Amino acid sequence: MDRIHIRDLSLRCIIGLYPEERKNKQDVIINVVLETDLRAAGKSDSLTDTVDYKAIKLAVLDFVENSSFNLIESLAEGIAAICLKDKRVQSATVTIDKPGALRFCRSVAVEVTRSRIGS
To answer: Which of 2, 68, 73, 118 has CB atoms 3.0–4.6 Å from 14's, for a disulfide?
Structure first.
């Protein structure tokens, strides 16, 4: 299976359990891997034969910036669902980093993989 990577999408949203986390939007860094078959697009050189990753990025951006979750796990589930709306995407792996979530570490991250089969 071929892969499309959307790397280091830096967004802001309300995320966290604690009152101080619910006041202001916080930074999250999102990475997405879309598994799909890219052979037709490679031969045709046409957007209609591939996943429109710009459209997925815009949908993720709108979803994240207007979201309010307690857990990054829930945010990751929502993003994976957006990715799987495109029927050409067979599976989506979403990694979300929350910088500064824990003292003395750069970030905390959650990674989920969801697919058409077994999702």
So the answer is: 68
